[in-house]
Amino acid sequence: MLVRFFYELREAGIPVSLTEFLALLGALQQGVSAQGAERFYWLARLSLIKDERFFDRFDRVFAAHFAGAERAFEKWAAEIPPEWLQARMQQQLTEEERRKVQALGGWEKLLETLKQRLAEQKERHQGGNKWIGTGGTSPFGSGGYNPEGIRIGEAGARQRRAVKVWEAREYRNFDDQRELGTRQFKIALRGLRKFARQGAADELDLDGTIEATARNAGWLDLKLRPERRNAVKVLLLLDVGGSMDEHVRGVEALFSAARSEFRHLESFYFHNFIYEYLWKDNRRRQRERSSTLELMRRFNSDYRVIIVGDASMSPYEILQPGGSVEHWNEESGEVWLKRVSAHFPHLIWLNPLPQARWDWTPSVGMTRSLVHEQMYPLSLEGLERAMRALRRPTLSQPLPV
Amino acid sequence: MSRFTGTSRYIATADLEMAVNAAVTLGRPLLIKGEPGTGKTQLALEVATALERPIFEWHVKSTSKAQQGLYEYDAVSRLRDSQLGDPRVADISHYIVRGKLWEAFESDTQPVLLIDEIDKADIEFPNDLLRELDRMEFYVYETRQLIRARHRPIIIITSNNEKELPDAFLRRCFFHYIRFPDQETMQQIVEVHYPNLKQTLLAEALRAFYEVRETPGLKKKPSTSELLDWIKLLVAEDLPPEALRSDDPKKAIPPLYGALLKNEQDVHLFEQLVFLSRRAR
């Protein structure tokens, strides 16, 4: 049974390996979680899941897998003959309560009505005075005020364990589709680090010194080497204004994270789409423009290019010469983006829109094909995939989710 | 084998207890994550106290290397000794400095080993410890010695999620995420630390604390350790419980809130929100 559970976890995209599965079985054999479903749930999560981002997904798979087991239990419970329940209730009731039961027409009548209402009622019910549920004055349910009531099931509101831990899905927030702060962005951007020793030799190379000294018959021979630095170069192109205003916080966080992570970082702005010029400072955008051609001359093709924009606009702004909303462009945006992406083989597009909404706007699909499907959502998960894509020697197709 | 059930100074929730006991029983390292200030580092110390085991603490920094936990070869002193003609120089083992892992391996009883904040070190750091954590042995090349653990240590590793840990490393660990305690657990925690606290003051303090935590947009939410500090201050100042529930707009902000909020943007945001809510009344 657990083998199927293991494969269901894998199908849900949770990275569980055989080692971890065997560890769980080992723990079960040692009797670590002898008592209770909840302890089993904790143990399974402890040994199989290694990142709180996957807790929510795990909860869902766990609930789906073990719901069957619970349903089986309910079926047995339904098969308990009513006489047993009746006898049990008779014992619990006081003399006075028993008389009240008689007032309603006796046990048979009460159970008859209960069955009837159960059949009529399709949904969970709370309050009210007829249906079965909690807190009401109907004779059926729990936590109510009718002294003639039958308690059905346990008192949910009073018992903390009533909702199962995995059904509560308390780790919903940790799934990685969430909005991000600067810190998490920084961690994701570190995926792009490429260390190299460059520049002045100012660090003592201990191993080199020892070896050279040994070769020198014991006379000290100091060796120095340059410090290890992150050598990756990044060019950041940011869409500003218009529809980007609602995403400004996410983009700001990305920008400040990138600034502290990369030593070689250059950033430029554009509006809606890339045409013949970009600018460095939004306040002086009319006066100080840099032409896109010059950009391609200044930065060689080992720069990693990250374009941030929602790519949501009228298709004419991409396809048509003169389609720009701001100025007359001689050549269409399509031509310019093709030129840029041909010059920089490592180019990706980050889109602050959630991926599910990309298909709603045709221009997003067009941009996506122009950047060879290298478009990723601006979430932690998307950024990680984007960084992995940028690290590969050639970009051919997007990484799977 | 004795089981860990928290200590007189540390409240462990049932799932955390099970995590520790599973890790002890199966001899696997336990990786602990959670919001800062939820007692991750404290856990290892308390496990050692509860199970009466010696503890070895290895605090990892951004410059730490995995090798430093095993041993270091102090080549520079050997070089100096050789130039001074010291006779000790002939034996290389004089210059092998033991690391925390080695010390833990040599312990006479089963020890607890804390590897604190493993995410601070370089990305490759955890990968360099795979064999050591798996087989509990390592090889000293300089003296051609194999060091093997006498007793498999109980290893507790903490992380603040600053770096992603490699899959191969994670596969060898159990993983537990310490959730922020609910109000009931928090009450127990405070009672353990300040047993004679007035009930009313505690109730008011907890109410004010969760209110501050609920404030939207805080950069750093106050955590358990900050709550404990704050209560310590309240007790030291001997404030009456009423002071925490004042309707006077000038005193609307809980006293001594500097212990709860740790950066000026948060303090500013909180003051503004309190001001707005008072004005709305």
Explain this structure.
The complex is a heterodimer of chains A (401) and B (281). Chain A has 16 helices and 11 strands. In chain A, α11 links the parallel β5 (233-239) and β6. Chain A has helices spanning 2-11, 18-29, 37-48, 55-78, 82-92, 95-103, 106-120, 165-168, 182-189, 206-215, 248-261, 292-298, 316-319, 333-343, 362-370, 380-391, and strands at residues 133-134, 141-142, 195-204, 224-230, 233-239, 264-270, 277-279, 289-291, 304-308, 347-351, 375-377. Residues 122-163 and 397-401 of chain A have low confidence and may be disordered. In chain A, α9 packs across α11 (248-261) and α9 packs parallel to α16 (380-391). In chain B, 41% of the residues lie in helices and 14% in strands. Chain B has a 5-stranded parallel sheet with strand order 2-5-8-1-9. A two-stranded antiparallel ribbon of chain B has the order 3-4. The longest helix of chain B has 17 residues, at 264-280. Chain A binds chain B through residues 15, 17, 19-20, 23, 26-27, 30, 32-33, 39, 42-43, 46-47, 49-52, 55, 170-171, 183, 187, 190-191, 193, 206, 210, 213, 218, 220, and chain B through 14-15, 18-19, 21-22, 25-26, 28, 31, 33, 75-76, 79, 82-83, 123, 161-165, 167, 170-177, 179.
Helices, strands, pairings?
The complex is a heterodimer of chains A (401) and B (281).
Chain A: H1 2-11, H2 18-29, H3 37-48, H4 55-78, H5 82-92, H6 95-103, H7 106-120, E1 133-134, E2 141-142, H8 165-168, H9 182-189, E3 195-204, H10 206-215, E4 224-230, E5 233-239, H11 248-261, E6 264-270, E7 277-279, E8 289-291, H12 292-298, E9 304-308, H13 316-319, H14 333-343, E10 347-351, H15 362-370, E11 375-377, H16 380-391
Parallel strand pairs in A: 1-2, 5-6, 5-9, 9-10, 10-11
Antiparallel strand pairs in A: 3-4, 7-8
Chain B: H1 14-26, E1 30-34, H2 40-51, E2 55-59, H3 66-70, E3 71-73, H4 75-84, E4 96-98, H5 100-105, E5 112-116, H6 130-135, E6 137-140, E7 145-148, E8 154-158, H7 167-171, E9 174-178, H8 183-193, H9 199-214, H10 224-237, H11 264-280
Parallel strand pairs in B: 1-8, 1-9, 2-5, 5-8
Antiparallel strand pairs in B: 3-4, 6-7
Helix pairs in contact in B: 8-9
